[in-house]
Amino acid sequence: MSKKEYKSTNHKIEFSDSRSLSTIKNDSVDLVVTSPPYPMIEMWDSLFASLNPEINDSLQQFNGLRAFELMNQELDKIWNELARVVKESGFVCINIGDATRKIGKQFQLYSNHSRVTSKFIALGFQPLPIALWKKATNAPNKFMGSGMLPAGAYITLEHEYILVFRKGGKREFSTADEKSLRNQSAFFWEERNKWFSDSWDLKGVRQAIKNENMRERNAAYPFELPYRLINMYSVKGDTVLDPFLGTGTTTFAAISSERHSIGIEYDVNFSSMIFDGLKNLCKTANSGITKRLEDHIAFCEEYQKEKGSLKYKNECFGFPVMTKQEIDLDLKHISKINSTDLGSITAEYQPVKFASHLIESSVAQYEGPKDDKQGQVSLLN
Ligand SMILES: C[S@@+](CC[C@H](N)C(=O)[O-])C[C@H]1O[C@@H](n2cnc3c(N)ncnc32)[C@H](O)[C@@H]1O
Description:
Layout: E1 8-15, E2 29-34, H1 45-51, H2 54-60, H3 64-85, E3 86-96, E4 99-103, E5 106-110, H4 112-122, E6 126-134, E7 144-145, E8 153-154, E9 159-166, H5 176-184, H6 189-195, E10 199-200, H7 224-233, E11 239-242, H8 249-256, E12 260-265, H9 271-307, E13 312-313, E14 320-321, E15 332-338, E16 345-351, H10 356-363
Parallel strand pairs: 1-12, 2-3, 2-11, 6-10, 11-12
Antiparallel strand pairs: 1-16, 3-9, 4-5, 6-9, 7-8, 13-14, 15-16
Helix pairs in contact: 2-3, 3-4, 7-8, 8-9, 9-10
The structure holds S-adenosylmethionine (SAM).
S-adenosylmethionine binds at residues 17-19, 35-37, 47, 218-221, 244, 246-247, 249, 264-267.
């Protein structure tokens, strides 16, 4: 029986206000990966004030808590829409930071991550374990408050949050096609250990925008962040939505992961940046895929040197893997991206042309069992 594979994926980018996701059907999205403007971070004040003028009044009146609540109420409108468009058992992953700020004479923390978590619980989502993203760009020696004198100094915020919510219970994979796509979407054992840690150490990306019609900073997250989340919480052929698309990072990660996607961004000025990103994507995404494979081979060699043979063989690449779940794991290179119109992008895929000597070196030391009753594959047979 031939296995179900995605030879192409579709991607749509819309420049509109995601407080209404009217073009997206109920229960049609498998995964949301996004990062909203953070309430009470100054760079977003004018955007929030344009959505509700009362926000500016509250800031002028030094009523920080009121401004915080009103900004979050604007985000709530998008969270309400996500509750409608996300499928049962689908996931929502949100990268958000808390804010510290002095309004009038009052310095305090504005805890965006707990406000957003309460909202999703109220919407009926299950909160799941979260990750802390330690941003390498934050200066650890930034003093806030009374310096070396107690008791008016404040802890520096060096982490952002990756919140994870699920709409309802565990996803079922019932049909043969569903099971096959899930197996092809597996990640490596050693990747699992890193990706599912609650502490993420990812480098930030360059923030400056040189366009006088736009804000000064793009607020983009690194490609690795949505790429990991997409691979952790969806399978090939799923639909990923980002209602705060910005520079297009989530779309790029979805294309690279053989998922469909929808991206919504308020500011149409981002279209040229997204086009530029698409132009370079084949090259950058494919080298990222090759790097995953090379890293796996390096892991195999190291493991086999120190601890002995790996028991299973991956069917697509022929290299050893740690578990039975990785046997059908498959990664594809992008062969072509058609993107004359951001409203309708297609990406096509091809098998990875992989240097066979690398695979040979990883299997050379294999001395695993020849006879395996649990269905494991022996490379010596
Ligand atoms: C934190 S940035 C996201 C950056 C993105 N993750 C990236 O990698 O480029 C938030 C984005 O949401 C957009 N935005 C804010 N409010 C919006 C709304 N109501 N509808 C659609 N986009 C909105 C902003 O213009 C901004 O580009």
